[in-house]
Specification:
Strand order of the largest sheet: 4-3-2-1-5
Largest sheet: 5 strands, antiparallel
Shape: elongated
Helix content: 40-55%
Number of strands: 10
Low-confidence stretches: 306-341, 345-349
Distance between the termini: 110 Å
Mean pLDDT: 75
């Protein structure tokens, strides 16, 4: 509060000085007038600054009281989100109001402003069109503060990315992704596009784990083992623990386990641990349940009693009047004729 107080004292000093020093001539009167106007501007700025600091202090205290580190933090996240948005909007509004009042305290500036708007009535329309994205995000921030489709520390899926709401600013929302990246989206995005909010009602969440196994997988034994793993795990909240067959494909089946946790980070760790434990158990207790590739076909012996014997019998039944192939050997001069030769047993493959 030292700087606002210093500004207020400076403004009061200028006003007092202009009132105490006698005016002598037009130039002195002009100096006195500008000193008085400067004093008014400083006092108005100091008052606006003090109000902004007091408002920010009160809102910051309310934000600090909203502890979101506890497991059941729905009410705290609601309050923190509302106070953060109101804090930023209040700062902007107080700044605009202070600047307006400061300019209104100067007659010259007030007359210039009125003349500009009187001579260019379309200026407001132009400014409104140019500032449409800014105003849209500002209004979207107020809507989010009231309706709260998202809150601080909500687990969301936006544009195919999964993460947590880290910051709700005046114009943008910062989403902390699972790999520590940051996804920056405009505030108006959440009023115009669909997205997933996994912690809208409460902070607890249900995680899913998938396995692709052979049809011989021991389902009942897996259910018993999964239940035992959930009961022994410190991150399981005791609500949901099931194993279901969600897909039956041509060469394998797909199993899905559901397990609940108190928060989305704990649900992620719980899913990873259960997936690993089930794989280790299958390798040790039921290796036949792991996915395999099957090849099936019909093979015949090269020399045996199969189709080749039938081919030889068919060849033996060939008529003696055949006139083509290597079974006929020419004799004599060309065109005299051909000599028929009966095929021997050795000629048959």
């Amino acid at each position: 509060m030292s700087w606002p107080a210093l500004l207020a004292l400076s403004g009061a000093g200028l006003i007092g000085l202009s009132a105490l020093v006698p005016e002598a001539g037009a130039q002195a009167a002009s100096v006195h007038g500008w000193a008085e106007y400067a004093g008014r501007v400083l006092i108005v700025c100091a008052a606006g600054w003090m109000i902004a600091l007091l408002t920010d202090w009160r809102l910051a205290a309310a934000i600090e009281r909203a502890d979101i580190s506890v497991p059941d933090n729905l009410a705290a996240r609601k309050l923190r989100t509302r106070m953060l948005v109101i804090r930023r909007v209040a700062g902007v509004l107080l700044g605009v109001i202070t600047l307006s009042v400061a300019l209104m305290s100067i007659p010259v500036a007030r007359e210039v402003g009125l003349s500009l708007f009187a001579s260019a009535g379309v200026a407001g329309i132009v400014v409104g069109i140019a500032a449409q994205p800014v105003l849209a995000n500002l209004i979207a921030g107020l809507q989010i503060a009231i309706t709260q489709p998202i809150r601080i520390d909500d687990a969301v899926v936006v544009e195919g990315e999964w993460g947590w709401i880290e910051e709700i600013g005046l114009f943008h929302v910062i989403i902390r992704l699972w790999d520590e990246r940051r996804l920056v989206t405009p505030l108006a995005y959440f009023n115009q596009n669909p997205f997933q909010n996994w912690t809208k009602q409460n902070a607890s969440i249900i995680g899913s784990i998938f396995w692709s196994l052979d049809y011989r997988a021991p389902l009942e034994e897996m259910r018993v083992y999964l239940k035992r793993c959930c009961e022994d795990h410190p991150l399981w909240d005791g609500r949901v623990c099931v194993l279901q067959v969600t897909e039956a494909r041509q060469d394998r089946i797909e199993l899905r386990a559901l397990a609940s946790a108190r928060s989305s980070p704990e649900a992620w760790d719980l899913r990873c641990d259960l997936r690993e434990k089930m794989i280790v158990w299958l390798r040790a207790q039921a290796p036949y349940a792991l996915p395999v590739q099957r090849l099936e076909g019909h093979f015949s012996r090269e020399r045996g009693d199969g189709a080749q014997r039938g081919d030889r019998d068919e060849l033996r039944r060939m008529p003696d009047t055949m006139d083509t192939g290597d079974d006929w050997k020419p004799s004599g001069a060309p065109g005299v004729g051909r000599e028929r030769r009966t095929p021997d047993e050795k000629d048959i493959p």
